[in-house]
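Table 4 source record.
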Amino acid sequence: MQFFSLSRRRTDAFPPEAFTPELAARESERVKELYAAGLIRQIWTRGDLPGAAILWEAANEAEARAALSSLPINRAGMLEILFLVPLAPYRGFIPAQ
């Protein structure tokens, strides 16, 4: 099952220096691990503000939420998950009967 999440860094609550290179490196490593495990299918950085959009592949919402919770920036309380939504196939591609 696929899920889509949209997040933003909590720059309103944390100063720029809180987002250290070490934290960014840990985040990058965790994202690579989740990608290698097949949980992250695609990831984008947001173009409007600091944050990410992620396409997840998970057995259920609990697994997707657990993966999101494992991100170091999220674990530090520095990330706001705006939404996590389940995705379903587009019905327009189903042949008419």
